[in-house]
Amino acid sequence: MIRQFTQKGIAADKFMKQCENVEDMILFMALYGDMEDDKKGALFVKLSKILFDAQKEVQKQNNITLDREARQIKNTLENQKKLQKLLEKGAITVDAKEVKPRDGDA
Question: Is 37 a domain residue?
Fold first, then answer.
C-alpha cells in the first residue's frame, strides 16, 4: 500500500477500499486523517514499529528454519560417514544387484 500510494497518489476513498489490515488503516489515518502533524507523526512511528516487529518475527522464523536444516544436513553427513566406515570395515555389505546407479554414474 505504501509503495502504491507514493507512486500514484491514490485518492482517499480508493485507498480506504484497499485497506486490508491494521497497518493499512494506520497509514490511511496518517495520510488522510484530520489531525495535527504531531499526531500523524506518532501514527507513522507506530506503523514503523509494527512493521519492524513483523520483520523481526519473519527473520526469527527464517533463522529457526535455517538452524533446523543445518542440523538435518549435519546429521545426514554424520550418518553417511558412519555407513561408509561400516562398509570399509566389512561390517555391512551391499548387494550390487540392489544398488541402482544415480544419474551421472556410469
Answer: yes
